[in-house]
Amino acid sequence: MSQAIYIASVESCAASLGSLSEILAKAAAREDAATLPAARLAPDMFPLFAQVQLACYQAVAGAKRLAGREAVRPAMQEADFGALRAHIADALQDLAKFTPGDFAGAAERQITMPLQPPMVLEVDGMHFLHRWMLPNFFFHLVTAYDILRANGLDIGKKNFLSHAAGFMRQAA
The domain containing residue 37 runs over which residues? Predict the structure, then answer.
């Protein structure tokens, strides 16, 4: 079970963050690159820079909680594409420190996480992974992708799933 949780949390998030970093590199090459990190899909949504930072936070903090470690939410800071890619690189380094063994007992581990006061999330690790961590991670990841698409970046599904290219082949 610990191997499955490791793959679903650490490996899945790391692969998708790698694809996001490639997309951000493409966005950084645009003439209007300086304006894109502050772009939003809607006025009441976080801007691109926050979506990237929150995706990284969800990945690393989620893995920490599943492994029984403390996770602290860092403050979000406005950032350009270089800083956002460095933020992803830091998250990937943090994720690389985990091993499947770190997730022994994670499925049953009780996780209590503060939300907006007075609310808390109280859930076992398996439900945390599938109903909180991964949905939140992918929400922020897809929103970052969508902001860039909405602002004219020429990206598609192959960019979003670039990490899956190693599993693709010509049919026999």
Answer: 2-167
Q: What is the DSSP letter of 53?
A: H
Per-residue pLDDT of the chain (172 residues), as tens digits, is 889 999 999 999 999 999 999 999 999 999 999 999 999 999 999 999 999 999 999 999 999 999 999 998 888 899 999 999 999 999 999 999 999 999 999 999 999 999 999 999 999 999 999 999 999 999 999 999 999 999 999 999 999 999 998 888 999 8
By CB neighbour count within 10 A (0-12 exposed, 13-18 middle, 19+ buried), where does 93 fall? exposed
Report cis status (omega within 30 of 0) of the bond before 135: no
We report the CATH number of the domain holding residue 25 as 1.20.120.450
Q: For the chain, what is the domain count? A: 1
Helix axes 12-28, 48-66, angle to 10 degrees: 160
Q: Where would I find the beta strands (DSSP E) of 39-100? A: none
Q: What tokens were used for 97?
A: 């420190």
Tell me the C-alpha distance between 70 and 91, whole Å: 16
In a domain, 160, yes or no: yes
Query: Left (φ > 0), alpha (ψ -120 to 50) or beta: where does 36 sit?
Result: alpha
